[in-house]
Design goal:
Layout (H helix, E strand, L loop, with lengths): L1 E10 L7 E8 L6 E8 L13 E5 L2 E8 L2 E6 L5 E6 L14 E3 L2 E4 L6 E5 L10 E6 L11 E3 L2 E3 L8 H5 L1
Antiparallel strand pairs: 1-2, 2-3, 4-5, 5-6, 6-7, 8-9, 9-10, 10-11, 12-13
Length: 170
């Protein structure tokens, strides 16, 4: 069971005011902690929410892929070690990607909330090779929690701010 708590949503303790990117793996049968990935949240960068990581294979290793500290980060499911990383959002972005990154063969589509929508090309067989932007678009959409899905060369999904009575209750 992979739990990504979010970008800057966890403090080391109540005394310190430092925040961290935090991801853990638990044995689903026993709840035993298998590994923890922690890195300091970057200073001056707004904190982001967590997301469900995408599961993919990079360098022959099964990985959990998520957005943290303005970067796509792939961690080995076996031991939590970092396998691949790509800085992908604006320096002053919210750093918020609630939808799971969409992995399509050699492309990762990332749709951050109110930030640059982008696709990153990478070689899943070569984790040491850096990724690069395949395309970017400054759409700055409200992506809420909805996933995008591919179909016949297009991406489909829902965007927009919450409106109506349900928004008033939130």
């Amino acid at each position: 069971l992979i739990l990504y708590y979010g970008d800057g949503s966890h403090r080391a303790d109540n005394e310190r005011k430092e925040f961290f990117v935090l991801c853990r793996a638990l044995d689903p049968a026993t709840g035993e902690l298998l590994w923890t990935f922690v890195e300091p949240h970057r200073k001056g960068v707004p904190m982001g929410e967590g997301q469900t990581p995408a599961i993919t294979t990079i360098g022959g290793r099964r990985c959990a892929l998520f957005l943290g500290n303005r970067s796509l980060i792939a961690l080995s499911i076996a031991d939590g070690s970092m396998v691949w990383r790509f800085e992908c959002t604006h320096p002053h972005s919210r750093g918020t990607t609630i939808p799971t990154p969409l992995v399509l063969d050699r492309i990762i589509v990332n749709v951050p909330d109110l930030d640059t929508v982008h696709a990153v090309s990478f070689d899943p067989a070569k984790p040491e090779q850096p990724g690069r932007f395949a395309w970017r678009s400054d759409l700055f959409m409200f992506t809420s929690i909805h996933q995008v899905r591919p179909r016949e060369g297009y991406l489909y999904g829902f965007v927009g701010d919450i409106q109506g009575e349900s928004a008033a209750a939130a």
